Amino acid sequence: MSTPAPQTRPDSAPVSALDPAVAARLKRTADGLVPAVAQQYDTGEVLMLGWMDDEALHRTLTTGRCTYWSRSRQEYWVKGDTSGHVQRVKSVALDCDGDTLLVKVDQTGAACHTGERTCFDADVLLSTDDK
Fold first, then answer.
1. Binding positions for Mg(2+) (predicted)?
2. Do residues 51 and 59 make contact, with C-beta atoms less than 8 angstroms apart?
3. Which of 20, 67, 75, 122 is the most buried if burial means most Cβ atoms within 10 Å?
4. Which CATH number fits domain 32-107: 3.10.20.810, 3.40.50.720, 3.30.70.380, 3.40.50.620?
């Protein structure tokens, strides 16, 4: 299932249907993006970090599935459309500074493109666990 591209204004900036009150609270990068941390809603496991612009956030809030902006491909992607590893949205919160989103999801299958459950399994830089 492909996601339609957003409409564009004459200045090439995307037009989004994101609630203006929500949009006003977002602090974006120079590229107009906000980092979005995906977390398993029932265990608290951090799954991945993706990027959203206003349109991706709008689609996430209205469809109940995570939509991200791919910085490498310069296009929207809905998590799971290709892999089947769907993220069903349970809640979305904006942090106190307005510069990061926390998206609590019910993850089906792997969250990472490598096939791992989480993107944070590969390189543990420090661990004080006695496991």
1. 95, 97, 99
2. no
3. 67
4. 3.10.20.810
Q: Is the pLDDT of residue 10 over 80?
A: no
Q: What is the pLDDT of residues 52-109, one digit of tens each?
A: 999 999 999 999 999 999 999 999 999 999 999 999 999 999 999 999 999 999 999 9
Alpha-carbon span 107 to 113, nearest angstrom: 13
On whether the CB atoms of residues 40 and 47 are closer than 8 A, the answer is: yes
Of 123, 128, 98, 110, the closest CA to residue 38 belongs to: 110
Residue 66 is assigned to a ligand binding site: no
Q: State the virtual CA torsion across 34, 120, 109, 90 in degrees, nearest 10.
A: -40
